[in-house]
Specification:
GO terms for molecular function: heme binding; iron ion binding; monooxygenase activity; oxidoreductase activity, acting on paired donors, with incorporation or reduction of molecular oxygen. By secondary structure, the protein is mostly helical. 63% of the residues lie in helices and 3% in strands. The relative contact order is 0.07.
Length: 319
């Protein structure tokens, strides 16, 4: 009886203390209850990542300016973050590390051979970070780009008919047409400037890609090169511009440490969701047209003109 009573008292003592503290000192106890789990989470993260940190000890890199933010704040406030990375590559070599938030490290690779090795082994060897997984899921959903391991192999096998040599040859003119349109636009800019002009390639390089991918994947003309407003162009414009809102700054500075913050409704995330819904609508319309055995000539969508159309045709043949 005494042993049982002592056991009950030992187990219930912390709960009694907590109740008394909440009643007598609520303003100091509540913050303590929030801080202790947070510090425990940080300590656990430091312990579990200690081996990975040791693997980066041999890499040089800039000193950590802030334990909480690392270099994220400096990168966010820079007019051109690429200049920072170019400077670090010249100073520390083609592979270096930069401090992230809460004592973490990020490896930066500027060597073409190392980058080629990484992308060739990305699915079978290297695993994406939680942040990359959340960003890809927000934009493309849990598809081929998001999947890893056996899931990726299964989805890739299902999509292989759309990427055969014959299918790729049929889509090649689409990319040539988009490139030629871009050339015409640049020629007109040069002629308007008496043979000289400054073109911000970084801001316009995505335009031919938008039209080419839209036509090849969906058979849909986004008309980005024609100057038409569309959700895809708005999305890339938002990436090029800096969002100075408080919630966006918090997501950028802390998103790498807490990827769940990428789910917050920032301006960019709202545009991404709109783009995702638009793409889904176009794909469903295309598949519905294929299931009815028809082709929408006005929108340029047809089973012989797009990857989605070809996959829809294969699905109908199997069913």
């Amino acid at each position: 009886m005494n042993v049982s009573a002592n056991t009950v008292n030992f187990v219930s003592a912390p709960w009694i203390w907590l109740q008394a503290s909440l009643y007598l000192r609520p303003y100091s106890t509540v913050p303590l209850l929030c801080i202790v789990p947070w510090l425990s989470y940080i300590a656990l993260g430091r312990i579990t990542t200690s081996r990975r940190i040791r693997a980066t000890d041999g890499l040089n890199g800039p000193a950590n300016p802030s334990f909480f933010f690392g270099f994220y704040r400096l990168i966010n406030e820079a007019d051109d973050p690429g200049v920072l990375f170019d400077h670090w590559a010249l100073q520390y070599g083609p592979a270096f590390r930069i401090p992230g938030g809460f004592g973490s490290n990020r490896i930066v690779i500027c060597d073409p051979k190392a980058a080629a090795h990484f992308y060739s082994k990305q699915v079978s060897c290297y695993v994406r970070t939680k942040l990359s997984q959340v960003l890809i899921e927000n934009l493309f959903g849990r598809g081929l780009l998001w999947a890893e391991g056996q899931n990726h192999h299964t989805q890739r096998k299902a999509l292989s008919p759309a990427f055969s040599n014959a299918a790729i040859r049929k889509l090649t003119p689409v990319f040539y047409d988009a490139t030629y349109k871009m050339k015409v636009i640049w020629d007109s800019i040069l002629e308007a400037g008496s043979g000289e002009a400054i073109i911000d390639v970084q801001l316009v390089q995505f335009l031919p890609s938008v039209d080419a991918v839209g036509a090849a994947l969906f058979g849909h003309d986004f008309q980005a090169l024609d100057g038409q407003e569309n959700i895809v162009a708005d999305l890339f414009d938002s990436f090029a511009s800096r969002d100075a809102s408080l919630i966006s700054r918090i997501v950028f500075l802390m998103g790498a440490v807490f990827p769940i913050l990428q789910k917050l409704p920032t301006k960019k995330n709202r545009i991404v969701k709109h783009l995702k819904d638009t793409m889904q609508g176009v794909a469903e319309e295309l598949l519905a047209g294929n299931s009815e055995g028809g082709v929408d000539r006005e929108k340029g969508m047809g089973e012989e003109k797009s990857i989605m159309g070809l996959l829809g045709k294969r699905m109908l043949m199997r069913s």
